[in-house]
Each structure stands twice: as structure tokens, then as C-alpha cells.
Amino acid sequence: MKIISTNIGDRKEITYKNKKVTTGIFKYPVEEPIFLDKEEVKGDEISDRKHHGGINQAVYGYSQKHYEYWKPKYLELEWNFGMFGENLTIDELDEAKIHVGDNYKVGEAIIEATLQRNPCYKLGVRFNNMKIVKQFWSTTKCGVYFKVIQPGLVNVGDELKQTKSSKTNPTIADLYKQQKEIKGIK
Fold this sequence. Notes:
The protein is of the alpha+beta class. Helix content is 17%, strand content 31%. It contains 4 helices and 12 strands; from the N terminus they run E-E-E-E-E-E-H-E-E-E-H-H-E-E-E-H. The strands form 3 sheets. Strands 4-1-7-6-10-9-8-12 form an 8-stranded mixed sheet. It has a two-stranded antiparallel ribbon with strand order 2-3. Strand 8 (103-106) and strand 9 form a beta hairpin. The longest helix is centred in the last third of the chain and has 11 residues, at 172-182. The radius of gyration is 15 Å and the shape is globular. The model has no long low-confidence stretch (mean pLDDT 94).
């Protein structure tokens, strides 16, 4: 697995259902390395600390391959990496093969897979279409949240090299399916 794009977002105010909301989902690729810290990516806006950032959601990774699935469904969009709010766009990230607790050395950092990403209305705002939220739930293309075990810089081209396998734990895709069941989403 290799990093194709490193992405950060700025603080942005949007209007949703006649209310002002602050978000950091409008991420964009950056050319310089990014620093993965214990609870966040330095310089990246996290507006909703209840659902993003923190120890178990410090870094969000999403697969470049998933973009090929989504692009034909939203031809009107101007596509760039970071569209799903990810900090790391990774060429072949596969939620069905990554287990909770798997560790990876990437650049100067060591990261550990922790959770799935559950979509919210802000993804719909980002896509200018709320149907993306239901479509997102109907796949297992949820991306992976990582805990940062060892902070450090990562850059485009850095490879995620597995240093610890946790095959007895559920996969990220398994967690996502469980969340869907718990929430009663069909």
C-alpha cells in the first residue's frame, strides 16, 4: 500500500438546513509532507471532535481504487483526492483485509488500524448530494481510521509496511457492517 496523496482541510462554514455549521471535510492535496500526531494531522481542521480526531481517529485513510467506483456516479463533480475527507489517499487500501490492531510503518510514523468511517451529512454537503450518504452505507468502501503509535512525517510515495498483524480481530469491513446493523440501515 502506497500513499498517492496527502490531504488537509481548512475550517469552512457552510449552511445546512438553515444553520451555520463548521467543517473540515473540504480537504485538498498538499505537496509537502504532513505530520501525523497522536490526536490529529497537524494543520488539518477538525471541527467535530466528537466524531473525528482523537486517539482512535487521528488519521483517516481512503483508497484510490474507491474513487474509480464513485466517479461515474458523480460526473458533475470536480474530482480531487481528499474528497472523502481523508488525510491519506492510499492506492490499494482494502477494508476487508485490514484488521483492527494491524500496525504499519509509514514514513517516520507508525499507525494502527482502529475504526471504520461512518458517513454523515457533511459528506452529502461535500458532494452536493445527500444520496451519497446512503450509497456510502451500501458498500464497505468506508476507509480506515488510524491511531498514531509513533508520530512523524509522511509523504506521497511512502509505503505502508505492516509491522503487526491482528488476524484474530475483526476487519474494518466487519466493523462497518456491524455499525450498519446497529443503526438499522438497509
